[in-house]
Specification:
two-stranded parallel ribbon, 2 helices, L,D-transpeptidase catalytic domain-like, 9-stranded mixed sheet, 177 residues, mainly beta, 11 strands
């Protein structure tokens, strides 16, 4: 499940699972909800993302979330999915971290790769037709799963985001609790 993935466009190493609590490993679980099948539910208090499945089941993934001041909640949809996406930091992030200017949209963004903050896959979250600038994405910093470290995005181990990406359709609903 968390093997090295040398077949990827940018080979992904296996994570050191001693650095990830077992409760955050990907797992199919019983999950009762009124949300329809295919909906993503982010449980921010427990650092889980659930993909609602049939018959009271869900695929559960451990996640890293937004640190204090960067949290968000609400309903939205997955408007786009990308494998090995380019990353362009939002202007607000560049204001906080001027060294990121080199990756701004004006400079073409950061090319895909293992060092790219979006990791192996990204799911783009929109409310209506507006990009929230939040993403569900992979990370090579797998030891951050189960903590509040991002600028509001939902981070998964690269192997988990690849699995999730293969299961989620464009237009899927997302609920962040």
């Amino acid at each position: 499940m968390y093997r090295a993935m040398p077949e990827e466009q940018f080979p992904i190493p296996a994570p050191d699972l001693k650095k990830v609590p077992e409760r955050y490993y990907r797992k199919q679980v019983d999950y009762q909800t009124s949300e329809k099948v295919g909906t993503l539910v982010v449980d921010t208090s427990n650092y889980y993302l659930y993909l609602v499945q049939e018959n009271g089941k869900a695929m559960r993934y451990g996640v890293g979330l937004g640190r204090a001041g960067f949290e968000w909640s609400g309903r939205a949809r997955i408007a786009r999915k990308a494998a090995w996406p380019k990353w362009t930091p939002p202007e607000e992030m560049i204001q906080r971290q001027p060294e990121l200017e080199k990756w701004s949209w004006r400079n073409g963004g950061m090319p895909p790769g293992i060092e790219n903050p979006l990791g192996a896959r990204a799911l783009y979250i929109f409310q209506g037709n507006k990009d929230t600038l939040y993403r569900i994405h992979g990370t090579g910093e797998y030891w951050t799963i189960g903590s509040a470290v991002s600028s509001g995005c939902v981070r998964l181990i690269n192997q988990d985001v690849i699995d999730l990406y293969s299961r989620v359709a464009d237009g899927s609903q997302i609920v962040v609790l």
